[in-house]
Structure prediction request, 120 residues.
Amino acid sequence: MDLVRAEQIDGLFVKVSTRIECWVKRESLSRWIADRDSELARYMLRPEVEQALGVKNITATSIAEAGAIRYVRGPSCDFPVGSTYFLREDVMRIRDAFERYAAPACDYVKPGSLIALRHA
Prediction:
């Protein structure tokens, strides 16, 4: 109903006996869904971000809140409610930077189960 009122979807309000119904044009609704889904494809959910960057939930959120990753809350962009969406472009840029500038791995001169932090 809000989308019809905001003229994002073509529709009309019809009074049926004692209630008012909102009727939408199927084509208009399908177009709106396609537009929303193409915009949604630009974003990643938190579990995807954690996997891509190898970080935990709190770290992913902290990176985003610091401004390194743009993000939106679901309802603010007409995305599903209850989730935060992180801009895929920013996540991939960070991942690529870590991969490009990764320190070379070296064999440890004193093999064992523990390693000195200064050698790591």
User: Anything to note?
Assistant: The two ends are 58 Å apart (CA to CA). The chain has a mean pLDDT of 86.
